[in-house]
Every structure is written in structure tokens, then in C-alpha cells.
Amino acid sequence: MKILIALTYYRPHISGLTIYVERLAQALAARGHRVTVLTSHYRHDLPYREEIEGVTVLRHPVAFRLSKGSIMPGFLSRAWALMRQHDVASVHLPQAEGGPLAVIGRFLAHTPVVLTYHCDLQLPPGILNRVIDRAVFVSNWIAARFADRIVAYTDDYARHSPLLSHFQSKIVVIYPPVVMPPPDARAVAALKQTYRAEGHTIVGFAARFAEEKGVSYLINSLPFVREKIPNVKYLFAGEYENVIGENVWERLQPLIKQYREYLEFLGPLPNHEMGNFFGACDVLTVPSINSTESFGLVQVEAMLSGCPVVASNLPGVREPIRVTGMGEIVPSKDARALAEGIVRVLQNRAAYVRPRAEIEALFSLEQTVRQYEELFESLR
């Protein structure tokens, strides 16, 4: 089967969405499908075309950027030509081009379009961002109207989403693709030594510094956690400086300087090292604050590594803990409640940990890819 995947950013850009699509694309290619990714040439040092693990990646030139969006003249006409050469188009939202891509697939290329709806878009404060939010919502609505099917991570999120809730008849729920090798004990020990975390209780965070990730609430939870667990240290894995469309790192500098001795910033880690990061953590936190977060892949990755999780009580985000019991769900935007959840897990950690096989039975890359294959085949 010839599969075209369209999205705004692809790897090496790091986000839950890009990791999701990379895993899906490479797994489909490994199963014998011809997979092409059409995306933006968002960084000048990247090639416009390359082959990665059997996937053809085409990066379209970017004229300029508006917030997190890329303005790409000629992108839609190129997508039209590519759709006509493929059996199905897999369009990943949110993206400004979503609506036109679905229309092109339905009326011009006559190629089935499957949307994967990763989250509602909610950009940081600002008049321009509010305009962009609304424009992308309209485009996503048009995409949902004309697409053949819509993949959602969870029924919980689909029922609560302002957009997905209006298209329930098209929804197909497929858990996201999760791949995480088990931690290596020596590598875990080395990581702790490198970041001066030996002998500390470690609270982890694995995401880029973006507004919706709730980083400020996590850092503000530190003094409350220290009241019960004085030797705690917070480790942050992921991009924190120069994050596209964000100024969270700069804005939080006074708070970071206040608690600097308890904070370590690791920057982005290769995926094969993330299991060791989770293995070093006593608990992982997902303190997200809005519907831009719809699941949190890192939760399942941490669970597979034997690390329990504390996550915000948001649609979709609460799903991994609900189905596994491997953590605590706490109110969002509440540093004290977050701290209380962290302390509950740390003080009775063994009660939250589940066997890796139990987590794998619920979240399987093989199962995710098979469900996508069946969905694509049903539309041919």
C-alpha cells in the first residue's frame, strides 16, 4: 500500500506528535508499505529530501513562520500531486493546511483521507495567537467534515474535544504507538552521577518547555514536596531553550534561579536513552494545563520503564493512569495538589508499580500499526 503522511513538523523536531508519526511511518515501512512523509523544511541544515528507515521524507520550503505555523507556498499543489500517486493520505492535525488537504483528497485527488487528531490547538497568550487558533480550528473543522475517518487517541478525549465531539460517527480510537526499551542499570547509575542525583529522590519531567506543559506548576510544587521529602531533585529532559513559538524558559528564569540547586536540565535525549532517564526517576510528572495535551506518550514510556506517574486530570491525559492504576491523577494548574500527588506516590511507590508485561498488553506498537493498516485497507 502507498501511504502519504502530511504534517507540519517531522523529526528531528521533538514533540509527542513527531515521535508518534515517526514510529508509525517507520513501522508501516518495515511491514512493506511505501511511506512518504510531506512536511516543512523548518530548519535550514536539513535536506529537502531524504530516506530514513525506509521512509521517504519530503520537506517543503518555508517562506516564513507565524508563531508555530509555517507558511509554505506551493505545499498544497505538491500534496495534490502526491495524493494522486498514493492509496491513502494520513493527515495529522492540528495543522493550518488540514482543511484544504481533506478537500483536495475528497474532490480533486479522489484519495481517501484519514485524519489523526493529536490535540486541540491552544497557543500561548497574544492577539496574533488567538487569531491563529481560530483559523486553525476552522481549517481542522473543514478537515473533519470532508475526511473519511478520524483517529483519536482515546474516547475520553474525543468526547470532550470541542471539535471531535461533533464528529463521533467518524471516530476510530487507536492508542498511540509506544516503543521503549527497558532501562539499563549501569546507564541509569551513570546518568544519576552525571547530574548529581545520587542519593536523591528524583521527580522527572520529559517534554519541551511549552506553555501547555505546566512547567511553572511543577517547579512551584518543589517547596511543598520538600516539606515531606527534603532530598528531592527535579530532572527535566527535553528542549528548554529556543523552543519554536515559546518563551517559557525565559519567562521562568526568576523561579528557576530561586530553586536552581534542586533542578537539573538535561536537554533533549535520544529516544534510546529515554528508558534510562525514566529508570532514574522515582516518579514522572505530566502537569499539563489544557487540551493541547491529549495523552502524554511519556506516561506509557515511563510505566514500561517501571516508573509511576502523576498526571493532570484532563481528558485523555488521565487515560494511562486510569487503565493501568500506575500513578495518581491530580487537578491541573494546582502546584500544591501536584505536590501532594507526587508525595503520595513516593511514600508508597511499590503499590503503584505494575509489571512491564501488563503495560505492554495494553499499549503495543504492533497493535497500533495493525489497526492503522486495517483502517487504511477498509477505505481503498
What does this entry look like structurally?
- This protein has helices spanning 16-30, 75-83, 98-109, 127-146, 155-160, 185-194, 215-228, 248-251, 253-258, 271-280, 297-304, 319-324, 335-347, 356-362, 365-379, and strands at 2-6, 34-40, 49-52, 55-60, 64-66, 69-71, 88-93, 113-117, 149-152, 171-173, 201-206, 232-237, 263-267, 283-286, 309-312, 327-330.
- By secondary structure, the chain is an alpha/beta fold.
- It folds into two domains: 2-177 and 364-379, Rossmann fold (3-Layer(aba) Sandwich); 185-361, Rossmann fold (3-Layer(aba) Sandwich), CATH 3.40.50.2000.
- Strand 14, helix 11 and strand 15 form a beta-alpha-beta unit.
- Helix 2 crosses helix 3 (98-109) and helix 3 (98-109) runs parallel beside helix 4 (127-146).
- 49% of the residues are buried.
Give the low-pLDDT segments.
none
Residue-averaged pLDDT: 94
**What's the end-to-end separation, in Å?**
9 Å
> C-alpha Rg, in Å?
21 Å
Overall SS class: alpha/beta
Please give the share of residues in helix. 40-55%
Shape: globular
Give the amount of beta strand, in percent.
Answer: 15-25%
How would you sum up the major sheet?
8 strands, mixed
Query: How many domain units?
Result: 2
Q: Going across the biggest sheet, name each strand in turn.
A: 3-4-2-1-7-8-9-10
Please report the number of helical segments.
15
| Count of β-strands | 16
> How does CATH name the architecture of the largest domain?
3-Layer(aba) Sandwich
Task: State the CATH class of the largest domain.
Answer: Alpha Beta
In the CATH scheme, what's the topology name of the largest domain?
Rossmann fold
